[in-house]
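Progress note, sequence design subtask.
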C-alpha cells in the first residue's frame, strides 16, 4: 500500500475509533473513561500486551467471519492435524451455451398517413409496419465453491467443501454471437491460512497469539517475527477476499 493510502486508511480508522469511543462512553458507567492507548499512562510492557490483544481480536473476527462460510471448529481441527499447510480455495466456473432462437413481431412506431378525397369527403388512411425480430437465447450458468485444503490438496481426502452455490439465467442477443465465452478455465483463487489455524485453539475457537519477548529477533512490540507473520497473513487474506468479492460482484452484472 502506498504511503498516502496508508495515511488515509489510518485517518479513517482513527475516526471510526473516535465514534466507537463516544458510543462506549454512553454504555459504560460514568467513572469509566475509555481513551486511546497513546493518551493513557502506560508502561512499555503494556505495548506488547496491546499488540497481542488487538491481534487476537482480529483473529477472533476472522474466525467468526469465515465460520459463516463453513470454516467450523471441526474443520479447523481437521486442518490442524498433521501440521501440514492449510489454505482456502475459491473455485468459480462459468459457461454460456446457445439455447434457441425466438422470433417475435415488433410494431414500428412510425405511422404512414395518406390523405385523399373520396366522394367529395376528405379521408385519410393510416398504415403501420410490422417487423420480425430474431432473438437468440443463451443459457449462462455459474457455479462456485469454497474448499478448505490440507497440504497440496491432491488427495481428495485433503479437501473439505465449505460452501457451494450455482445459478442460471437466460441472456438475449440480436445475433448469434455469445455474450460471454462459451466456456473458459475455472477461476481458482487460493490463500494460505496456516498462520490463522495455528493462532486458534480449535477446541474452543480461542485466539492464542503471543509475542516471544525473549527471542533475540524481538526488537519492539511491532518489530518481531510474530507480528510480522500476523501482518503478512492479514494482508494475504485481504487480497484474496478482495479478489473473490470482485468475481462475485461481476456475476451480479451479467
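Output:
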Amino acid at each position: 500500500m502506498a504511503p498516502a493510502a496508508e495515511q488515509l486508511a489510518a485517518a479513517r480508522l482513527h475516526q471510526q475509533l473516535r465514534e466507537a469511543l463516544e458510543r462506549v462512553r454512553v454504555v459504560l458507567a460514568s467513572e469509566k473513561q475509555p481513551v486511546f492507548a497513546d493518551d493513557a499512562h502506560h508502561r512499555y510492557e503494556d505495548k506488547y500486551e496491546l499488540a497481542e490483544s488487538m491481534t487476537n481480536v482480529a483473529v477472533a473476527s476472522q474466525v467468526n467471519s469465515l465460520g459463516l462460510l463453513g470454516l467450523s471448529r471441526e474443520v479447523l481441527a481437521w486442518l490442524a492435524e498433521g501440521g501440514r499447510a492449510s489454505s482456502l480455495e475459491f473455485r468459480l466456473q462459468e459457461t454460456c451455451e446457445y439455447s434457441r432462437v425466438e422470433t417475435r413481431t415488433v410494431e414500428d412506431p412510425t405511422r404512414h398517413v395518406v390523405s385523399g378525397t373520396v366522394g367529395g369527403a376528405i379521408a385519410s388512411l393510416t398504415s403501420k409496419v410490422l417487423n420480425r425480430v430474431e432473438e437468440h437465447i443463451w443459457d449462462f450458468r455459474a457455479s462456485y465453491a469454497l474448499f478448505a485444503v490440507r497440504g497440496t490438496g491432491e488427495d481428495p481426502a485433503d479437501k473439505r467443501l465449505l460452501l457451494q452455490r450455482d445459478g442460471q439465467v437466460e441472456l438475449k442477443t440480436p445475433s448469434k454471437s455469445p455474450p460471454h465465452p462459451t466456456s473458459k478455465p475455472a477461476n481458482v483463487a487460493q490463500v494460505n491460512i496456516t498462520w490463522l489455524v495455528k493462532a486458534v485453539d480449535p477446541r474452543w475457537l480461542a485466539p492464542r497469539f503471543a509475542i516471544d519477548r525473549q527471542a533475540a529477533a524481538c526488537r519492539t512490540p511491532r518489530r518481531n517475527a510474530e507480528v510480522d507473520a500476523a501482518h503478512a497473513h492479514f494482508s494475504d487474506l485481504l487480497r484474496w477476499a478482495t479478489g473473490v468479492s470482485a468475481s462475485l460482484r461481476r456475476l451480479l452484472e451479467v
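The first strand starts at residue 86 and ends at 118. Work on this subtask will continue into the next period as scheduled.
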